[in-house]
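Issue: copy button drops trailing tokens. Both records pasted manually instead:
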Amino acid sequence: MQRDFRSSVEFEAVHRFYSDLLGAPGHVFGGRSLCGHQGAGQLYFIGQSFEGPIEGGTSSRLYEVERGSGAIKRLSDREARQIRLSPDGRLLAFACQGEGPATDLIETRSGGAVVASVALRGRIEQIDWSPDGKRLLLVVAGAAADLAGIHGGYAQKQPAEAEAWLPEVRLGEGEDLWRTLWIWDLEGAARQLTAPPLNVWEASWSGKDSIAALVSDDHSEGSWYRARLALVDAGSGEARIVHTPRDQIGCVRGNPSGDKVAFVQAFCSDRGLVSGLLSILDVTTGDVATADTLGIDVTSIEWRSTTMIHFAGARGPETASGDFSLERSVATQHWASRELTHGEWVPASSPIGDKGSLFIAESWSRAPFLAEETNGTIVELASLAAQGEAGATAPCGTIEPFEWTAPDGLKIQGWLVRPQAVTGPTPLLVDVHGGPVSAHRNRWLARSRAGAILASRGWTVLFPNPRGSTGRGDDFARAVKGDMGGADAQDIICGVDALIERGLVDTARVAVTGTSYGGFMSAWLPSQTGRFAAAIPISPVGDWYSQHRTSQIPEFDEIMLTTSPWESGGDYFSRSPAFHKQKKIVPTLIMAGAIDKSTPPGQAEECHFAALRSGAPSALVIYPNAGHSLRGYPEYIDSAARILWWLERHVGPANGTGPSAKGDQG
């Protein structure tokens, strides 16, 4: 496999496919944080586009969309971080990249014009208006703070300030590693409210004098797993711990009156992917109640009023949203769908008016679109489909929920993409999600890396949601704890067997891929079964011992494995793919990012070594400027092209009977 893959027919095909899907430079193909005020003519969102060629990577900008016409207008040329409307809808707060590489800017805008702005050193990760709309709360990550795995899992890049040969020095300490709270009254400079050794992961106003915050006493990414809920005095910055969770917390939101704090409490594997129980703290008594959300694992919450919480989440294959009334202690579902989903990483929607919501919706065969929901009915405000998107999407098969039975009788769900006009068994790609506490949804096919292209070429694609996945309740998610690569691996193998038994899949042509935890599983499964003909782990874990000692999140494996990383044997050995040979020769393509701190590239090297010692053809591809899961461009395009190349040669084309003879073997 060549280092420069751009002249290959696979790269050209993938590049053409994604160029059609994502559009020409300047076209907005995706977005997040859609917000607006009831009755206003304009809505706002952060849109994604390419400023130049697709190889240059994506940009995020602030956009306005006109209600009625759907006309989209760019409001800023700065890289967007966060946006939030004031309670009365008159001012828009906009956090963006500042002039310097380690400086961010916070602006307030009215009618598209900047009213006030202030620069801060660091990265603004969250903004929130005080209930009276007179102050802004900011969560600011230090200029050298690590990013979460879903945002790349690397330390923020710093400008070169010295000779290239000088070493990097890590001390594990420094002011620029912490996340702190700041308050800005829209005049003059912002005021820093908190300081180390208090690290603030997320926060919101709780009334006008207090702030609800998720805090830890260490800045390391792994300390998030043991973070606690605190109330911070908006004047002094003094923090008081009010709740220590059993597991993890996310989506902390104080209500306008300051007497209640809502949050999601769940067993989690990733910061930013919190899916579970809607919990409500009574600030006066300290009691925490769990709301009945009609079987929906909650992933997004906002206060619609002082006594009404808007929430969104997943229930099995459905994406759903509704409201929970504190006065009546009852939830009302407003919308649910298998045909559509929303949210960037997890389902997310924003309340508007008394009972409506705003979100950016999508499905496998439908490009993202801005949507407003009222009484369960969706109105499309603006489509983000590119001009060539329909033609690129048409041959990529159809998706449907798929269910099968695990060896212990548990029902397992997932999503199945079948190619068009198929008449017999096809090759199969199994794409395992990360986490493991996450889930595949009915997402736009552009998010499938090589999956959609393979479907257009006659492959079936299975997106399994084994135990450990979200949307099935706390017990189902928690079932993976202490058993990574155990029952969840058997869930996936049984899904493959079910497809073979139904005559949908060729038993000799099954491949597996996935990123992060899916990368671990892609390296692990060939050591557990002879079912797979090829494996493509991306950002995998190969060795839990070295993962614990080199990753930014050692707390993760301490929670998920039953034995100690300081003892020999046990789970740290028995569940490490690098310590086991493959059941048969399984050609293995392993890809990773060189600056990944969530699953460092040494993990990919150990998987490569184990594959070679199993006698398998193996290729190791390390992208020098990429972080976790290779989501940036052009790495996303290049990795998809290499997947096509690998599968064509080691599994064979869909209309063939086995591996192709052309090309080298890795």
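Record 2 (pasted manually too):
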Amino acid sequence: MKISRRGALALLGMGAAAPIGAQAEAATGQAVQFLHGVASGDPLQDRVILWTRATPADPAKPAPNSLVEVALDPTFKSLVKAVATPVAADRDWTVKADVAGLKPGTDYYYRFRIGGVTSPVGRTRTLPAGPTQDVVLAVASCSLYPAGYFNAYGAIARLDRVDAVLHLGDYIYEYGAAPGDYGMSSPTAAKRTPQPPHEIITLADYRTRHALYKADPQLQAAHARAPWIVVWDDHETANDSWTGGAENHNPDKGEGDWAIRKAAALKAYYEWMPIREPVAGGLPETINRSFRFGDLASLMMIETRLTARDRPIDYDAQTLPTVDGKPDFAHFMKVWRDPSRKLLGERQEQWLAAELDRSVKAGEAWQVLGNQIVMARVCAPNLPAVMGEKAWAEFFAKLPDYAKQPVAQSAALSAVDVPVNLDSWDGYPVQRERVYDMFKAARARPVVLAGDSHSFWANELWDDGRKSRVAVEFGTTGITSPGFEDILVGAPLGAALVQRNPEVKYANSAAKGFVLLTLTRTEAKAQMMAVSTIHAEDYTVSALKTFVATAGDGGAGLAALREV
């Protein structure tokens, strides 16, 4: 299907309200402008969060209250709700309403009215209740603004059907706009410069970066198309974040206290995202929550960054020392398999076990995990063996200097059964096994969804010792963020990963796009939807691969993944 950027943006008109550009022009001199679109999220059977941002003409003056209208049709002749919501500077003029009293499994249209100005129209949908035939979800992750156009978001906006959009994190990135900053070597970077142009640290910085993203027309169109269910990964705060800090946070270089930076990032996130507010008295980091799609599936969104994650280990001298000139992998294994190292934390583990048990006992066909990071066991691929030593040597010589050290390390590790990425579930193997034990104890049929890696994945997850298949995993590639195959151009990386790793059935880090997941009572089908380019405004979208998971023998567990 060929899609033009103009065609995608036409979706923003969606009803009585004018498109963004026309509306902004018409609103000059009015009390507010709607420059950042509308969005909905966290749908339940009877309610949904509705969001917008009302940019004031004069921030020094109080803004009038917002009225959000909800109807069964885009012309608002069948109006069902009108809810007043305050507009205030202390929330950066963002507006969020938790609209209740809705019917399950129903499409609604909504708009905001403030000071005589009307927002664009959005479309949302409540979750179904009772018998449910099927559910269609778009799964997205990793949108680096300067790296390319958000064509994949435009493609999501144009889907014939999507019941909800799952965003698994890295919705924004924290880096600046210096020549060496992440993404600034892209051919689109000159047209898509991050704002503010420095690394974001303060509340004002994070708000400005969220505003930049929400001003993107294709992202606005995707938000206006369907409700979103979101979770953060690391870049919403800083790269490789954990409870006590982040790889990209350095107090010694003027970046301040981590707790202050994290609090600023989370405040901006809750302001700017269509997500339900934290429970009164609860920590904002506690973002884990579940959604029930009738009797078909429960979606359990877990948090793997800020609530309990211990600092990731690395292949450094402390974790992998050298003894008699050789890497001491025995020491590495001891540190790596330390049972005290955690990713979820005890409270979230207990919550997840209870949700799995509840879902299975309710007769739901699927237990879906909305999860930030890849769960499969993935060892480093042996590219020299796959390519041949001569071809590998020629290929390696042509790599950019910044890539040679990590690529050489990966090649060296390929001879040993250790993970290639210790910032994923692979860095917390004992914690992962506890989750697998939960799957088995509940007799669940889990579908794990993963972001973060900038790669498509179709994986079968097995417990330690490969005694039983416990889940399937579908990973979504980046919307724009570069994958390993953008660096290792021409290398058979996907084939090498499949050859090296029994759990990996498909891997592709060159494509950009999203996963379209369709659930029925008998199968979970994942289509790897790829856009043809992120460096031009016109593009096509197609399904690269499609994989299906079905029930195992006797209806329990899962059969082997199959490509269709």
